[in-house]
Structures are given as C-alpha cells and as structure tokens.
Specification:
Layout (H helix, E strand, L loop, with lengths): L4 E11 L5 E10 L11 E6 L5 E6 L7 E5 L4 E3 L1 E6 L5 E6 L3 E3 L4 E7 L5 E13 L3 E5 L3 E5 L12 E5 L5 E4 L10 E4 L6 E4 L17 E5 L6 E8 L8 E4 L5 E4 L12 E4 L6 E4 L12 E7 L2 E7 L11 E5 L2 E4 L12 E4 L5 E4 L2 E2 L2 E2 L3 E5 L6 E5 L11 E5 L2 E5 L11 E6 L5 E6 L8 E4 L5 E4 L9 E8 L1
Parallel strand pairs: 1-5, 2-10, 19-23
Antiparallel strand pairs: 1-2, 3-4, 3-7, 6-9, 7-8, 11-40, 12-13, 13-14, 14-15, 16-17, 17-18, 18-19, 20-21, 21-22, 22-23, 24-25, 25-26, 26-27, 28-29, 29-32, 30-31, 32-33, 34-35, 35-36, 36-37, 38-39, 39-40
Length: 471
C-alpha cells in the first residue's frame, strides 16, 4: 500500500428519496513510475452504466478534487475516470468494478488509471518472488495466486489475491497442500475457485513427486477457507493445461506424471452443484504436455481445440478437438508440433495459435484455426509477432490481444508485449515490459486491465513484480 500514489480523493454524495444518503469514496491509483495526471488538464468522471452522470473538473499540478450529489435510484455500473489533455483527448483512463450505486456509504474503492495501450509497473507486488504459480481471475474478488516455487525452489502453499477493489496484494489463507505447476480456475455464479494438481518435490522444474488433489477456496469467510473436494480416480499430475469451455465447465488436460511421462487423460470439473473432478471417458488422441488449448464452437457441438504438446519420441496428431466429452484427432494440415504456444478463442469464434517452439526453435508465426468439420480451416500468420516467443502469455481484453514475454529462438527472454487487433489479427503495436519474463501469469480483470506477474526473469530466478496493461 505504501507504493500507491494517491492522485485524488473523490467523494460522490449519493442521495435517495426518504432523506437517505451515502458517500462513495474513490482512491485513484497510478503507476509509481508514471502519474498521467501530471500531464492532464482535467479529469472526467462518468458514473453508472447509462452515462447520465458526467462531470469534468480541472487538474492543477497533478491534483484535483471532486464531489457531486445525485439521485441514482439504485443504479448499477462502474465509475469511469478519464484524464484529459488541454484539447480534451483522453491520455489515461480506468474504471471501478460494477457497483450498486445506492444511498449507503461505500469505499474507499480504488481505480487504476493508466495510459491506454501501455504496460506500467503496478503499485503493488507479490510478497515474495514466485514461479510455477497457479492463477485465475475470480470476478468480484481479483486475481488469485496459489502455490508455486520461491527462489530456493521450495514448493509453496502461499495464496495471495490482487484485489480488484483496492489494487493491493492481500495475503489470504494458505492451501492445504503446497504445490507448483498446478491449475486454478474460478467457478461460475460466485467467488469460489479451485486448485488442482502440481508438483510437490523441491527444486525449480522438479516433478519427482506430483499431487492429485483438488481444493476449493471460499474467500467469504475470514481470510478464506480451503477444503478438499472429491476426485473420481483422476491420476495425479503436474503442468496440465486448463480449458474453460463456453458452458463454464473446466477441463484439465494432459500434463506429466512423476516420471516425466506425458499423459493423455483429461478430467472435467463441473463448476456448479457438487464440485468434483471426474475423468472423461474418452482420453485425448495423444499424450500432451505444454500444449495450447481454447474453447471452440464446431458445427456439430461445442468443445475445444487442443494444439501441440507432443513430446520428443512420441507420435500422434498435432491437433485434436473435444466435442461433448470425446476427443478425436483434428486435421490442421501440415502444421508443425508446437510446445509452449498459446491458443485464444477470438470474438468471431476462431482459435488463434501464436508462437511456441517447434523442432527448429521458437517461432514468431501463428495460425488461425476456424473450427470447421471434418477438418479445420487453417490460415497461416507468418509474421504474427515482432519476435519469436515461447513460454509467453496471450490475453484478450476488448479489441486487444496482448502477447507478452517469453523466450526467443536463442533463449533470450523478452521484455515486450505485442498488441494484436482482435478482429484483423494484425499487429497494432509492440510495447515494453518493465521486466523480461517467461512462464508468468497474465490475467484479465473485469475492468479490462491485464495483470502480469511472477514467472522467471533473465537470470532464471522467480519474480515478485507485477505490471498492468491498460487497454
């Protein structure tokens, strides 16, 4: 909290019928290295989804004050904050999560304000450097960081949350088991989440022992409560791939066992009702680890595209698809197998595969998979990225696909992000990261921000730093 720069304290006096009133207090949070209000001539506030309450106030030497009164009639929506230059152009913006704007006291609630299309250091950091951490965004809560390894290679049970309402990191109750390289996923209809699997042996990248348990996190009690969940004979594993289907169901696919052998089994976590992990009756068409996967809608049903992840010495189709609960080989033409690529479901239903490592090294290319049947329609993107990347992340926020970090063909870690247009797949810009990183987390919050954290740096050591991309 000491690193948060308070540009202004904004008070909205909310009045309703019957004499009731309340105050919503906002903290404005900016990057420690870049306060956009230093360049601003004014700041504009838009309150609520209907945009009916808009107020612009002047900024003097980076400071301003704001207090308005209105009758919201229990409306809902975010508070949008925009820093404007002398011409009225937006030079930075941010918004709160959705709020119920009624006559009660609320806050303080923090709003991150950043320059659009840029990555900036966050005003918070994880308590310790960590890699191989399991992460997920939990709506109404924030980004959950569970387990991982510290800079000694020790496996952690630590759990932290980057809070969407305060833009601070909060340490919560630890997991029941220490684990690294597992998967985390949020459940629909609430703020609960689950964590599964991972390695339990010491040492960066070690998988001499692996875990097969599933834990449920409920943040509504104290600092959070962890509880074990049922498993239906699902094998233990480390480094599986998570797929969130359009229905909200969560698929845990592939990964490796304690002998480093890639697995072909996959499981289903039902996000509602009795939460448990059950083995799918149909295994994948090939064992895979470090594969890319994304939800897809096929003419014959909803499911997912799985790409790459074939290990040296194994054979199998480069891609396969999941429809219902059955996997089958999927013809993508003469595409090379890729390890540590990303796959993203795009707004038009395509699956965009980017980067990754082939037999000839890390790639800057990508391919568009249009989920047709019986074979895929594949469109190559030879120069999709500004540099070859593997072990990177790809995050879709609005019309931006933000592809960050990773290692190039020489193994050099990249301190940059490529921003692709989500409609045309063309590269709009390449923006710097504050720290080169690989194997990191990049989670999209409900406010549209991408929170980039953890992973390993150029020296191979875990990182504690966090950065934020503002769309």
């Amino acid at each position: 909290m000491k690193r948060i720069v308070l540009a202004a304290l904004s008070l909205m006096a909310i009045a309703a019928c019957g004499g009731k009133s309340g105050t919503l207090s906002l903290n404005i949070v900016v990057s420690p290295g870049d306060d956009p209000f230093a360049d601003a001539a004014s700041v504009r506030f838009t309150v609520g989804s209907d945009g009916s309450h808009v107020t612009t106030v002047p900024v003097s030497m980076g400071h301003f004050s704001y207090k308005i009164s209105f009758k919201p009639s229990d409306m809902t929506g975010p508070v949008l904050v925009e820093a404007l230059d002398a011409t009225g152009a937006v030079i930075a913006h941010g918004q709160s999560p959705y709020l119920l704007l009624s006559a009660i006291d609320q806050g303080p609630i923090s709003v991150w304000v950043g320059r659009p299309g840029r990555v900036a250091p966050a005003a918070a950091a994880l308590p310790k450097p960590v890699t191989e951490v399991s992460t997920t965004y939990v709506p109404g809560l924030g980004v959950l960081y569970a387990g991982g390894r510290d800079n000694t290679g020790a496996v952690l049970a630590d759990v932290n949350v980057y809070d969407v309402f305060t833009h601070a990191v909060i340490s919560v109750s630890p997991m029941m088991k220490a684990r690294a390289g597992g998967v985390a996923a949020s459940l629909t209809g609430g703020v609960q989440s689950v964590v599964y699997g991972g390695a339990t042996s010491q040492g960066l990248g070690s998988f001499a022992t692996v875990d097969g348990t599933l834990e449920l996190f409920d943040p509504t009690v104290g600092l959070g409560v962890w509880a074990p969940l049922g498993l239906d004979t699902f094998p233990a594993r480390a480094y599986p791939t998570k797929i969130v289907l359009g229905s909200g169901a969560i698929i845990v696919s592939g990964g490796e066992d304690m002998n480093g052998v890639a697995l072909s089994s996959a499981g289903l976590i039902n996000p509602t009702g009795a939460i448990m992990l059950g083995t799918l009756g149909s295994p994948m068409a090939a064992p895979r680890v470090s594969h890319a996967a994304a939800a897809a809608k096929f003419p014959d049903g909803d499911g997912a595209v799985i790409f790459g992840g074939l290990q040296s010495g194994t054979t199998g189709p480069v891609a396969e698809r999941l429809v219902g609960q059955a996997f089958a080989a999927y013809d993508v033409g003469m595409q090379d197998n890729r390890i540590n690529a990303t796959a993203t479901t795009m707004p038009n239903g395509d699956v965009l595969v980017l980067g990754g490592k082939t037999a000839s090294g890390a790639q800057a290319s990508g391919l568009v998979i249009t989920p047709t049947t019986p074979s895929a329609t594949v469109t190559p993107l030879p120069n999709a990225l500004s540099v070859a990347r593997e072990g990177h992340t790809a995050s879709l926020t609005g019309n931006d696909l933000v592809v960050c970090g990773g290692a190039d063909a020489t193994g050099t870690l990249q301190a940059s992000c490529d921003v692709l247009d989500a409609m045309t797949y063309g590269r709009k810009s390449t923006v710097p990261l504050g720290v080169a990183r690989r194997g990191h987390s990049a989670e999209v919050m409900e406010t549209g921000l991408v929170v980039i954290a953890a992973g390993t740096g150029s020296d191979g050591a875990p990182l504690a730093s966090m950065e934020i991309y503002t769309p």
